[in-house]
Amino acid sequence: MSDNDQISGRQIAAARALAGIAQTDLATSASISVPTLRRMEASEGPASGLPNNVAAVRRALEAAGVVFVDENGEGPGVRLRKAR
To answer: 9-79: what fold?
Structure first.
């Protein structure tokens, strides 16, 4: 998924759960507040919030091993990179 593609609130919530990261820890890693993260995760469609905040959350999740999967007709998704 390219950096210009928007991620959804559901992708953020799924990615966080898949990586086993608490909301407080992800918010800290992304330098945003927990309420801001909660609003993003509750979004229907593209994650709500300032673009720089959404990008910070995405970077934090990617650093934790999450890969955001493009929409391919079956819907967007997330997965974890294999450990090397």
So the answer is: 434 Repressor (Amino-terminal Domain) (1.10.260)
